[in-house]
C-alpha cells in the first residue's frame, strides 16, 4: 500500500442512496463521486432536498432506514467503510470521523451535564481514566472558546446559549481527534455574529488538528469564506465541483450560475434578482436526461434524454452538455 | 413633540406625510415566576422589555426594514404594529390615527382591512384542511367586501394570478404546494382585502435562495403595481439591503440606528451596525478579513445598564455604561450612540 500517501483521505465513488417506498424506489442521491484530501475543507451546497445531508449521513453510516446505500463505495484512508458491520462502524464513527449537526439543542442530551457527555465520548474511544478524561474534556471546552470551562463542564445544555452549545457540539466531534469532520449546517441555527465566531473556530481547529472537513450548507457566503473546494448538488446529483473561487466567480453550470445570481448582494444595487423559474423536482418526478432541464435557460435537445457526466472544464468539473459541445467544437477547430 | 418635529426636519420627510408613525412604542412582558415560587424564594417580579421605546416612520409606497439578531424585538414590533399585541406604552399612528388605542374589535376592523401580515413559516400559517380558494377568500368574506360567491371566486382567481399561480390552484390543498408556492398563497391572502400596508415578518427565511429570489422579486413587483407600503422584518442583511428604502437596526429592544438603506450599509455609524456588517460572509471573496465579533446578545430580562451594547462595544466608556444614549440626527436618519455624539467614532475601512 505504497500509494496511500497519494490517496485522498476520503473517496466517495458513484454513491447511490435509495428509499424503497410502496409506490416504488426513490433515488435520493444518484451517482455522486468526490474526494476530500487531508486538511481540506470541501463545501457541499444545494437547496433543501438536493441530497447533501444524506450524502453526509451515508459517509458516517447514519443513514436512517429505509434509506440505504444501493451502490457505490465510501473509502476512508484506503479502507472501504460503507459495508462495515455495526460495531466496526461504531469505532470508525467518532474515532476517524466526527460529526457536527445543525441544531445544537437537539444534538445534546438535556438530561446529562455537558461534561458527562464529553467524558462518555472520550472514554468510549480511549482508555483514559475518569480523572484524565475529565481533564481532557476541560481542555476541549477551553479550546473551543468556552469561558471558565472548569465551571461550565458541570452545567447542563439549557444553561448554554445557542452559540455556546454549538461550541460544545464541536468539542464533542473533536474528542478523539478525528481525521474527518462532517459538519451539517453547523451555523444555520445561529445569528450572523455568532456564525462568524463558529466559522472562525472551525477553520482554526481544522488547521491545528489537520482534520479534513466536509461542510454541508445552503449558505454560499459560509462556503466562500471557509471552503477550499465546493461541490454543488442538485436533485441528488453533482452539478459542479471545483475550487471555491472558480465556482463562485466563474460558475459554469447554469444552475450554479442562477444560484449565484439569486443571492442578494451588498455591493451594487440590482433592481431584480436573477430568478430560476420553478423549483427543484420532487424525487418522484426527476426528469429524464439532465435533472435541471425543465428550469434551465440554456436547455437544448440533448439535455432532455441523455444524462451528462462530470467533465473537466477549466479547473472545475461540470455535468452539463453545454461544455461537452464546446469541447467537441474546439476539438474539431484544433 | 419638539423632538419629533426636529426629527422630521432633519430627515426631510416632512414633505411626504408618513403612512405609519411609531412613537415611543414599548412592550413589556411579565415573565415572573408563579406567585408561590416568588413568595417562597422572596424574589420579585421580573419584566422582559421586548421593545423599549422606539420611534420610526414609513412613507407611503416605501419599504422600511427592521434588522437585528434573534431576541432583539423585531418580530414584537411587527405584531405591535398590526395590533396582535397591545403596546405597554406609545403610539402607532396609521394615516394620522392612533391605532394602538383602539381596543374593540369593531374599531379595529377598518384598519385590519388596510393592514395585512405575511408570516415567516408558510407551513404553519395556512390551514391544512382548507382549500386554497377558501384560504384566500377568507379576508374578502370577513370584511364583507364582495357578497356574490361567484364574484368572490373570480377575485380569488385574479389574486392567484397576481402572485403568479394559476386560478385552478384554488381547488387544491396547501400540502400540494412547495414552500415558495405556499408563501405566494400567503401573499395572495394578504392582498385579498386590498390593503395598503403589509407587515412581512421574515417572509423568506424558511425558503431556499432560488425561491427566495422569486418571492423578493414578486414583492417588489407588487409594490410597484399596487403602491404598497412594507414593514419588512428580517435577520438577513443582504435581503434587507436588496428590498429596503429605509433600514432600522435593533438591539435588545431599542432602535440603535435608522437611515436610508444606502446610508446604513455604506456609511454605518453605530458600532453595532458596523459589527453586523463586518460579520456578513464575504461572497465576493475580495479578501476582506471577516471580523469575528466577541460576545453574545445578553439576556433581555437583565439587559446591561446604559447603552445595551456597551459590553460588546470596542468604543465603550464610563458614560456608555451609565447613560442611555438618545437618538441623534445622522444623515437621513437617527443614531443612538455616545461615541457618535462625542466624535469618538473611528473611520470605517470600506470593504
If you had to describe this structure to a student in words, what would you say it looks like?
The complex is a heterodimer of chains A (334) and B (351). Chain A is an alpha/beta fold and 334 residues long. Chain A folds into two domains: 2-86 and 180-191 and 207-288, P-loop containing nucleotide triphosphate hydrolases (Rossmann fold, 3-Layer(aba) Sandwich), CATH 3.40.50.300; 97-177, no CATH class. Chain A contains twelve helices and twelve strands. In chain A, the strands form two sheets. An eight-stranded mixed β-sheet of chain A has the order 6-7-8-3-9-10-12-11, with helices on both faces. Chain A has a four-stranded antiparallel β-sheet with strand order 2-1-4-5. In chain A, helix 3 (114-125) packs across helix 4 (130-143), helix 4 crosses helix 6 (162-174) and helix 6 (162-174) runs parallel beside helix 7 (192-209). By secondary structure, chain B is an alpha/beta fold. Chain B has a single domain (2-341), classed as Rossmann fold (3-Layer(aba) Sandwich), CATH 3.40.50. In chain B, helix 5 packs parallel to helix 7 (179-191) and helix 7 packs parallel to helix 8. The longest helix of chain B has 18 residues, at 209-226. Mean pLDDT of chain B is 87; it is low at 1-15. Classes of the chains: A alpha/beta (334), B alpha/beta (351). The A-B interface holds A 47-48, 161, 163-164, 191-197, 199-200, 218-222, 224-225, 244-245, 248-249, 258-259, 261-267, 269-277, 279-280 and B 69-70, 178, 180-181, 208-214, 216-217, 220, 235-239, 241-243, 262, 265, 275-277, 279-285, 290-293, 296-297.
Amino acid at each position: 500500500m505504497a500509494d496511500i500517501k497519494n490517496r485522498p483521505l476520503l473517496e466517495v465513488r458513484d454513491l447511490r442512496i435509495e428509499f424503497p417506498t410502496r409506490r416504488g424506489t426513490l433515488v435520493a442521491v444518484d451517482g455522486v463521486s468526490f474526494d476530500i484530501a487531508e486538511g481540506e475543507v470541501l463545501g457541499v451546497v444545494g437547496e433543501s432536498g438536493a441530497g447533501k445531508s444524506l450524502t453526509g449521513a451515508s459517509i458516517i453510516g447514519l443513514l436512517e432506514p429505509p434509506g440505504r446505500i444501493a451502490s457505490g463505495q465510501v473509502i476512508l484512508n484506503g479502507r472501504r467503510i460503507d459495508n462495515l458491520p455495526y460495531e466496526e462502524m461504531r469505532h470508525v464513527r467518532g474515532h476517524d470521523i466526527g460529526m457536527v449537526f445543525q441544531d445544537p439543542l437537539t444534538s445534546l442530551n438535556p438530561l446529562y451535564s455537558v461534561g458527562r457527555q464529553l467524558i462518555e465520548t472520550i472514554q468510549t474511544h480511549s482508555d483514559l481514566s475518569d480523572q484524565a478524561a475529565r481533564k481532557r474534556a476541560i481542555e476541549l471546552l477551553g479550546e473551543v472558546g468556552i469561558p471558565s470551562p472548569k465551571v461550565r463542564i458541570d452545567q447542563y445544555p439549557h444553561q448554554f446559549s445557542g452559540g455556546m452549545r454549538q461550541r460544545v457540539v464541536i468539542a464533542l466531534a473533536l474528542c478523539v481527534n478525528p481525521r474527518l469532520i462532517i459538519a451539517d449546517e453547523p451555523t444555520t441555527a445561529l445569528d450572523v455574529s455568532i456564525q462568524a465566531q463558529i466559522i472562525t473556530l472551525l477553520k482554526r481547529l481544522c488547521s491545528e488538528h489537520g482534520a479534513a472537513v466536509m461542510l454541508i450548507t445552503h449558505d454560499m457566503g459560509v462556503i466562500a469564506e471557509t471552503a477550499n473546494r465546493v461541490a454543488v448538488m442538485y436533485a441528488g446529483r453533482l452539478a459542479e465541483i471545483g475550487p471555491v473561487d472558480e465556482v463562485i466567480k466563474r460558475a459554469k453550470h447554469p444552475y450554479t450560475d442562477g444560484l449565484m445570481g439569486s443571492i442578494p448582494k451588498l455591493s451594487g444595487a440590482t433592481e431584480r434578482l436573477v430568478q430560476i423559474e420553478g423549483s427543484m423536482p420532487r424525487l418522484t418526478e426527476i426528469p429524464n436526461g439532465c435533472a435541471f432541464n425543465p428550469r434551465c435557460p440554456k436547455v437544448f435537445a440533448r439535455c432532455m434524454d441523455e444524462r451528462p457526466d462530470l467533465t473537466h472544464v477549466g479547473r472545475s468539473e461540470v455535468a452539463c452538455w453545454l461544455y461537452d459541445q464546446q469541447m467537441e467544437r474546439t476539438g474539431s477547430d484544433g | 413633540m419638539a423632538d419629533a418635529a426636529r426629527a422630521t426636519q432633519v430627515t426631510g420627510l416632512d414633505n411626504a406625510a408618513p403612512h405609519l408613525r411609531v412613537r415611543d412604542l414599548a412592550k413589556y412582558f411579565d415573565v415572573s415566576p408563579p406567585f408561590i415560587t416568588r413568595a417562597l424564594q422572596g424574589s420579585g417580579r421580573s419584566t422582559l422589555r421586548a421593545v423599549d421605546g422606539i420611534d420610526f416612520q414609513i412613507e407611503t409606497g416605501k419599504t422600511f426594514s427592521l434588522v437585528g439578531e434573534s431576541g432583539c424585538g423585531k418580530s414584537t414590533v411587527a405584531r405591535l404594529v398590526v395590533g396582535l399585541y397591545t403596546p405597554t406604552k406609545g403610539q402607532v399612528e396609521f394615516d394620522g390615527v392612533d391605532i394602538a388605542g383602539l381596543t374593540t374589535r369593531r374599531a379595529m376592523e377598518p384598519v385590519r382591512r388596510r393592514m395585512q401580515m405575511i408570516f415567516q413559516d408558510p407551513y404553519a400559517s395556512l390551514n391544512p384542511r382548507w382549500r386554497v380558494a377558501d384560504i384566500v377568500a377568507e379576508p374578502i368574506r370577513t370584511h364583507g367586501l364582495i357578497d356574490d360567491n361567484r364574484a368572490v371566486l373570480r377575485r380569488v382567481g385574479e389574486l392567484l394570478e397576481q402572485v403568479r399561480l394559476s386560478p385552478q390552484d384554488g381547488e387544491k390543498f396547501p400540502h400540494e404546494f412547495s414552500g415558495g408556492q405556499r408563501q405566494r398563497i400567503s401573499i395572495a391572502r394578504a392582498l385579498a382585502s386590498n390593503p395598503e400596508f403589509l407587515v412581512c415578518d421574515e417572509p423568506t427565511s424558511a425558503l431556499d435562495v432560488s425561491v427566495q429570489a422569486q418571492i423578493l422579486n414578486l414583492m417588489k413587483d407588487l409594490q410597484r403595481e399596487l403602491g404598497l407600503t412594507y414593514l419588512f422584518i428580517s435577520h438577513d442583511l443582504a435581503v434587507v439591503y436588496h428590498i429596503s428604502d429605509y433600514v432600522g437596526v435593533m438591539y435588545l429592544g431599542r432602535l440603535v440606528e435608522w437611515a436610508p438603506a444606502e446610508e446604513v450599509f455604506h456609511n454605518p455609524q453605530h458600532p453595532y451596525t458596523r459589527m453586523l456588517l463586518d460579520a456578513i460572509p464575504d461572497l465576493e471573496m475580495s479578501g476582506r478579513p471577516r471580523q469575528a465579533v466577541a460576545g453574545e446578545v445578553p439576556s433581555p430580562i437583565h439587559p446591561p445598564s446604559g447603552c445595551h451594547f456597551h459590553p460588546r462595544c470596542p468604543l465603550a466608556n464610563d458614560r456608555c455604561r451609565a447613560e442611555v444614549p438618545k437618538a441623534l440626527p445622522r444623515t437621513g436618519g437617527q443614531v443612538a450612540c455616545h461615541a457618535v455624539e462625542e466624535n469618538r467614532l473611528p473611520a470605517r475601512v470600506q470593504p
